[in-house]
Design goal:
The chain is α/β, with parallel strands linked by helices. The protein has ten helices and twelve strands. The strands form two sheets. It has an eight-stranded mixed β-sheet with strand order 5-4-3-2-1-10-11-12, sandwiched between helices. Strands 6-7-9-8 form a four-stranded antiparallel β-sheet, with helices on one face. Bound molecules: magnesium ion.
Length: about 270
């Protein structure tokens, strides 16, 4: 197999912590695949470092080669000596983003409640959004408010199914899962043909709708399915289950997408 970059979201994509069932053998097969020497594994997640390490330990996930954490605002290289923060990325996205001013500007929105301190980042402000508050309308109001104040930020809105509460991340406009993946591809020298992304929810949409080949796992939320609409299977594959007798949810969906885009990997997986 040729050198490949596999980028996967964690919650409800690789980590089976949604309401749907996981195929029993899926994660074990994913672990075998991730150990292939030609594969560089990237975790792309809203989680911060300690929550990622906790997830790795709790679910027995393979050690990644790179981690894009805090919804694209932090990149780490993982080596035998530990986690190394990619400072050039932090410097790049940190320009022109006055964190405290933005936090103050957003205090007028009473539906927003600041998340716990350990969920905040140097380049990320995270809020809970009261259940029942109209997501898109509120996001539009916030975007307008920040724009009028001259703040270049991007808003990442998602829903925590378990807690049924809205989650909002406010990031520098230059920081996103997509830009972070592009930065990594460029720095580590991978083209789109040798890169694949897997995700499930709203904060994966920028990558799912980009030119980077992507897979939407079968357990994805309906609004994300709708949002990706009729994108051609050459760039976006929606897992449907049935691959190697697995259901297409979580790791099974990632592997189904891997097989769709990378025939050599399909051959390898079928030989397990
Ligand atoms: Mg997810």
């Amino acid at each position: 197999m040729k050198r490949r970059l596999l980028c996967v979201d964690l919650d409800r994509t690789l980590i089976p912590n949604g309401i749907q069932a996981e195929s029993k053998q899926a994660l074990a097969l994913f672990r075998q695949f991730a150990a292939h020497e030609a594969l560089a594994l990237v975790y792309v997640t809203g989680r911060h470092r300690s929550l990622i390490e906790q997830g790795i330990a709790e679910y027995g996930l393979p050690q990644p080669d790179f981690v894009i954490a805090d919804v694209g605002t932090t990149i780490y290289r993982i080596t035998a000596t530990g986690w190394h923060r990619w400072h050039a990325w932090s410097a790049l996205i940190g320009q022109d983003w006055p964190r405290a001013d933005i936090d103050r500007l957003l205090s007028v929105f009473t539906a927003l409640k600041r998340q716990e301190a350990d969920k905040q980042g140097r380049h990320k402000l995270s809020y809970y959004v009261e259940p029942g508050v109209g997501g898109q309308e509120l996001m539009d109001d916030i975007a307008t408010h920040l724009y009028q104040a001259g703040m270049k930020s991007s808003l990442i809105w998602s829903i925590d199914e378990h807690a049924s509460i809205g989650l909002l991340d406010v990031l520098p406009a230059s920081a996103s899962k997509l830009h972070a993946i592009r930065f990594l591809m460029q720095q580590a020298n991978y083209d789109t043909e040798h890169t694949l992304f897997a995700g499930d929810s709203g904060n994966d949409l920028d990558v799912l709708l980009s030119d980077i080949p992507s897979v939407l796992v079968a357990n994805a939320e309906d609004d994300v399915r709708t949002a990706v609409g009729q994108v051609h299977e050459d760039v976006l594959y929606v897992a449907r289950g049935g691959y190697l007798e697995m259901n297409g949810n979580y790791a099974a969906g990632i592997l189904e997408g891997v097989a769709h885009f990378w025939p050599e990997a399909d051959t390898w997986l079928r030989a397990r």
